Amino acid sequence: MEELKQTALFDLHVELGAKMVGFAGYSMPVQYPLGVMKEHLHTRQAAGLFDVSHMGQVVLQAKSYEDAARAFETLVPQDVLGLGAGRQRYGFFTNEAGGIEDDLMFANRGDHLFVVVNAACKEADIARMKAALAPDVVVTEITDRALVALQGPAAEAALARLNPAVADMAFMDFAEVELDGVACWVSRSGYTGEDGYEISIPETEAAGLCRKLLDMDDVEPIGLGARDSLRLEGGLCLYGNDIDASTSPIEAALTWAIQKVRRADGARAGGFPGADRIYGDLAEGVARKRVGLAPQGRAPMRAGTQLFAAAEGGDPIGEVTSGGFGPTYEGPVAMGYVGAAQAAVGTEIFGEVRGKRMPVTVAKMPLVPANFKR
Amino acid sequence: MKFTEEHEWLRVEGDVVVVGITEHASEQLGDVVFVELPEAGTEVTKDEEVCVIESVKAASDILAPLDGEIVEVNDPLVDEPGKVNDDPLEGAWFFKIKPSDLSQMDDYMDEAAYKDFIG
């Protein structure tokens, strides 16, 4: 087995008593002494600091932002060109079958495009971008910066202690901000359903800056365990579980992320892989759809749980793709794919847990309302 | 008190044996969010799955450590699964079993041996 890579915060995690696990080739903290449940609740009540340095940070540089944006639009169905300077947007790489190769965040940095991709996909993503966009676009992986997320209702007050300017950022704003004298790339975004920031920090300064944040009473370090339960309650997809190369964005209920200008009747329709399939799904509807699921009992319904229309008999109508216990929801929460006939909110279906069919209600996502700074 | 390699503890109380999981096990499991108990009156055989516990991380089974009859279960655990983390050795017992052959207890470790076992 290949040796696990370490982020710039590895020593800090160990010092904080984290339980380290292998994740996407990196040694990452799954939990700290506080434990998954309390870490989750602390993030929703105050602020949590997450190391997400394993994710890929990539700069796309062309003659201008517009040139980089036009090129990037050949890989994603998003409106990249129309994104304002200092703004960030959610997107995904598609394949020829209309499936999702990875989901990502991209930002207009004025003269270039900044992209953050999932750790497990980053090598393939970078290869894809280089193959499709070079030589007009120079694709550079940023390997000397850590990436952390500060999330929760106290995130603004905490980060503002290092630079009050961050309080003025709106949801999905992106700016270069000096934090305690360190030049950071800061976006007002995250993966928890809470207000907060994602902060790219020069590696040599990362541990110091994180210590400053962790010294604050309202900030605790949070591991991958709570990151997963937070995003699950927030209805946010985990690539590889809830979306993958075989799920179209329409099936995945990510239609909102395809802006009008990139739809079939938009000014810049098509030009990305799988446009025909995706436009077909949009026009004709889909046979299966990603939905939120609220198990009625106490038993968690984990990924792989088969879903049925009735309490007895019949073939599965779908499957749970992410599921567990929601500490804020105070009960089991899940998401998964069901047939179009079962996708309406309020539909009662059944999940088979240890051979028993348990009732589960199709629920509006997110199961825990988002708390973004609009 | 005796201990199994499955991290259960067994405490003899008169003619029944009380069964729970060890502190070590509860720490390894993480926050317990779901407990499914057997029904009192169930006849069980050693190593049969009798309870399910789920933590924020995963589901695990609890095995019957002895042949016998489940005579009582700790129902409040179902509503308060977190007790398994807070009080694993006392309040969070799972069930009481009336063993058909108490000598099966001899197969299990004493406290010192269990401490060695978990390192």
TrEMBL record, chain A:
Organism: Shimia marina
Domain of life: Bacteria
NCBIfam families the UniProt entry points to: gcvT (TIGR00528), PRK00389.1 (NF001567), PRK13579.1 (NF010093)
Any one GO BP annotation for this protein: methylation
Protein name: aminomethyltransferase
Catalytic activity as recorded in UniProt: N(6)-[(R)-S(8)-aminomethyldihydrolipoyl]-L-lysyl-[protein] + (6S)-5,6,7,8-tetrahydrofolate = N(6)-[(R)-dihydrolipoyl]-L-lysyl-[protein] + (6R)-5,10-methylene-5,6,7,8-tetrahydrofolate + NH4(+)
Keywords, ordered alphabetically: Aminotransferase, Methyltransferase, Transferase
EC number from the UniProt entry: 2.1.2.10
Cellular component GO terms, alphabetical: glycine cleavage complex
Transmembrane segments: none
UniProt cross-references to SUPFAM superfamilies, sorted A to Z: Aminomethyltransferase beta-barrel domain, Folate-binding domain
Enzyme class: transferase
Domain Aminomethyltransferase C-terminal: 288-368
Binding site for substrate: 198
InterPro entries: GcvT, GcvT/YgfZ/DmdA, GcvT/YgfZ_C, GcvT_C, GCVT_N, TrmE/GcvT-like
Family as reported in the entry's similarity comment: Belongs to the GcvT family.
UniProtKB/TrEMBL annotation, chain B:
The protein, known as: Glycine cleavage system H protein
GO biological process, one term: glycine decarboxylation via glycine cleavage system
Family: Belongs to the GcvH family.
Gene: gcvH
Modified-residue entries (N6-lipoyllysine), positions: 57
Alphabetically ordered keywords of this record: Lipoyl
Lineage: Bacteria, Pseudomonadati, Pseudomonadota, Alphaproteobacteria, Rhodobacterales
Subunit structure: The glycine cleavage system is composed of four proteins: P, T, L and H.
Role this protein plays: The glycine cleavage system catalyzes the degradation of glycine. The H protein shuttles the methylamine group of glycine from the P protein to the T protein.
Lipoyl-binding domain: residues covered: 16-98
Species this chain originates from: Shimia marina
Cofactor(s) it depends on: (R)-lipoate
Any one GO CC term of the record: cytosol
Pfam families: GCV_H
Record's cofactor remark: Binds 1 lipoyl cofactor covalently.
InterPro entries with a match to the protein in the record: 2-oxoA_DH_lipoyl-BS, Biotin_lipoyl, GCV_H, GCV_H/Fam206, GCV_H_sub, Single_hybrid_motif
Keyword Cell wall biogenesis/degradation in record: no
